[in-house]
């Protein structure tokens, strides 16, 4: 006998919603409604997967479709919210487009919290957090995630170090040399963070201040020079494969 098709289909559109989901009615408007109405051509009876970063993923059935909004019936929970490893990514903002990529990959790779860190060589003074969150949401929608990274306000490096949690290891990519990343991460399981500097790297005073933090461990990411965004993705991947949930 032929296999029973999966329901809802894998091709079902997924949307993030700010409101906490539960069985009942929900109204979709704005750009999301435009996508469902004008791009997906949804009619009453069509289905949508919804997630809210709190209660998991739900099935929504279009009850009515207007010109600029839709009303959906939230009928059943498809999945609970996924568990997320306790990893922060603390990254110096880099040029527009590249920092957007970092936010997107942080979501895809399973980072719990993204912290923009302002250093002396940071080239960006103002950071559009709303745009970064939008990139994370789009990544979660496309990759089937039910959790989003927390997005912290930008913080200056001295303040980050001053208020650093006692129980959290800080692995910082040290271009001056450090312990092999996998070796360092295996030696320090538990809550962790990865600190990536700007395009020009940390200056000597900053590196000295980081190394003075008891929880800090300088790590090396291999023999090749990496751009800041590549270093961020590589370090997170190494942590996930070593002590995370991969």
Q: Quick gist of this model?
A:
Helices cover 30% and strands 26% of the residues. It is α/β, with parallel strands linked by helices and 246 residues long. It has seven helices and 13 strands.
CATH class of the largest domain: Alpha Beta
Give the oligomeric state: single chain
What is the total number of structural domains? 2
How helix-rich are the residues, as a percent range?
Answer: 25-40%
Strand content: 25-35%
**What name goes with the CATH superfamily of the largest domain?**
SPOUT methyltransferase, trefoil knot domain
Number of strands: 13
**Overall form:** elongated
The value of Rg in angstroms is: 21 Å
Task: Tell me what you see in this structure.
A hairpin with a 4-residue loop joins strand 4 (57-65) and strand 5. The two termini are 35 Å apart. The longest helix is centred in the middle third of the chain and has 15 residues, at 129-143. The chain is an alpha/beta fold and 246 residues long. The relative contact order is 0.14. The strands form two sheets. Strands 6, 7, 8, 9, 10, 11, 12 and 13 form an eight-stranded parallel beta sheet that branches. A five-stranded mixed beta sheet has the order 1-3-4-5-2. The protein has helices at 30-39, 98-109, 129-143, 157-162, 181-187, 204-211, 228-242; strands at residues 14-16, 24-28, 47-51, 57-65, 70-79, 87-91, 113-118, 150-151, 155-156, 169-173, 179-180, 192-196, 216-220. Helix 2 (98-109) crosses helix 3 and helix 2 (98-109) packs parallel to helix 7 (228-242). The protein is elongated, with a radius of gyration of 21 Å. It folds into two domains: 14-79, Hypothetical PUA domain-like, domain 1 (Ribosomal Protein L25, Chain P); 87-242, SPOUT methyltransferase, trefoil knot domain (Alpha/beta knot, 3-Layer(aba) Sandwich), CATH 3.40.1280. It is built from seven helices and 13 strands.
């Amino acid at each position: 006998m032929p296999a029973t098709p999966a329901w809802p289909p894998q091709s079902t559109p997924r949307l993030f919603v700010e409101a906490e989901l539960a069985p009942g009615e929900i109204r979709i408007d704005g750009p999301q409604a435009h996508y469902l109405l004008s791009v997906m051509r949804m009619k009453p009876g069509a289905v949508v997967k919804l997630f809210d970063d709190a209660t998991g993923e739900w099935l929504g059935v279009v009850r009515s479709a207007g010109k600029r909004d839709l009303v959906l019936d939230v009928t059943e929970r498809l999945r609970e919210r996924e568990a997320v490893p306790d990893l922060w990514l603390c990254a110096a903002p880099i040029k527009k487009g590249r920092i957007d990529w970092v936010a997107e990959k942080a979501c895809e790779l399973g980072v719990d919290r993204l912290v923009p860190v302002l250093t002396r060589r940071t080239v960006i003074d103002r950071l559009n957090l709303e745009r970064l969150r939008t990139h994370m949401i789009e990544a979660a929608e496309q990759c089937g995630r039910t959790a989003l990274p927390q997005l912290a306000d930008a913080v200056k490096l001295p303040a980050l170090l001053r208020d650093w949690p006692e129980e959290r290891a800080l692995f910082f990519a040290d271009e001056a040399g450090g312990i092999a990343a996998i070796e360092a991460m295996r030696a320090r399981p538990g809550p962790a963070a990865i600190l990536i500097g700007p395009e020009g790297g940390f200056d000597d005073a900053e590196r000295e201040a980081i190394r003075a933090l008891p929880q800090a461990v300088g790590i090396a990411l291999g023999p090749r020079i990496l751009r800041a965004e590549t270093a961020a993705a590589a370090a997170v991947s190494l942590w996930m494969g070593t002590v995370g949930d991969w």
